[in-house]
Design goal:
The complex is a heterodimer. Chain A is an all-beta fold. Chain A has strands spanning 3-7, 11-12, 18-25, 34-41, 48-54, 59-61, 69-74, 79-84, 93-101, 106-110, 114-118. In chain A, the strands form two sheets. In chain A, strands 2, 4, 5, 6, 9, 10 and 11 form a seven-stranded mixed beta sheet that branches. In chain A, strands 1-3-8-7 form a four-stranded antiparallel beta sheet, with no helix packed on it. In chain A, a hairpin with a 4-residue loop joins strand 7 and strand 8 (79-84). Chain B contains no helices and eleven strands. Chain B has strands spanning 4-6, 9-12, 17-24, 36-40, 47-51, 55-56, 64-69, 72-78, 86-94, 99-102, 106-110. In chain B, strand 7 and strand 8 (72-78) form a beta hairpin. Helix content of chain B is 0%, strand content 52%. Chain B is an all-beta fold. The N and C termini of chain B lie far apart (36 Å). Classes of the chains: A mainly beta, B mainly beta. At the A-B interface, strand 10 of A face strand 4, strand 5, strand 9 and strand 10 of B.
Chain lengths: 120, 111
């Protein structure tokens, strides 16, 4: 069974860049059946889709974040990564990574999530 | 900006039946939106329940079912158990832009 694990700094200063990595085990990011996605959830609030990436590097981003988001993939390490620039306190959230079965557009396996706090 | 709307909260008695809905600001929800439903309990990641309107994952309890109802996606829980108390989120796919949007969530209380 595939497992996903987020990793990265838990504290980021305002105006800096948030960087997270999702490591996939029990499966491969190079499979042509899947996209790989980032989703976030501010404390006490709902889920927000950030974006997703295909193993080829093709990406789609949430329009509200598009100017600040970059998602990349490293097939040699079975990892994909998120960079969010110019962060503010509003970017404080639990960040999840997830697998997307593209043929029927469903998110099946999720990581446990990591809380990233933006504060000086 | 596309908005996906769910009931903020619902209450159901143990053993009862409840239906949660998911509406799109763009109009009627169809199977082409590939509706997903997720359950989230405090401190846990979301757990996928339903995909493509009505398909269950291997781990989804039989009491959960998905459908289209009156232009919305719907999640019905039949024979509700105390452990079903949770937040439920829907997700819709917008094919033209290849984007997805989550609903705001429904807090289900079993009382």
């Amino acid at each position: 069974q595939v497992q996903l694990q987020e990793s990265g700094p838990e504290l980021v200063k305002p105006s800096e860049t948030l960087s997270l990595t999702c490591t996939v085990s029990g499966g491969s990011v190079s499979s042509n059946n899947y996209y790989w996605s980032w989703i976030r959830q501010p404390p006490g609030k709902g889920l927000e889709w950030v974006g997703y990436i295909y193993y080829s590097g093709s990406t789609k981003y949430n329009p509200s974040l598009q100017s600040r988001v970059t998602i990349s993939v490293d097939t040699s390490k079975d990892q994909f990564s998120l960079k969010l620039s110019s962060v503010t306190a509003a970017d404080t959230a639990v960040y999840y990574c997830a697998r997307v079965v593209w043929q029927l557009v469903y998110f099946d396996f999720w990581g446990q999530g990591t809380l990233v706090t933006v504060s000086s | 900006q596309t908005v996906v709307t769910q009931e903020p909260s619902l209450t159901v008695s143990p053993g009862g039946t409840v239906t949660l809905t998911c509406a799109s600001s763009t109009g009627a929800v169809t199977s082409g939106f590939y509706p997903n439903w997720f359950q989230q309990k405090p401190g846990q990641p979301p757990r996928a329940l339903i995909y493509s309107t009505s398909n269950k994952h291997s781990w989804t309890p039989a009491r959960f079912s998905g459908s289209l109802l009156g232009g919305k996606a719907a999640l019905t829980l039949s024979g509700v158990q105390p452990e079903d108390e949770a937040e439920y989120y829907c997700l819709l796919y917008y094919g033209a832009a290849q984007h997805v949007v989550f609903g705001g969530g429904t807090k289900l209380t079993v009382l």
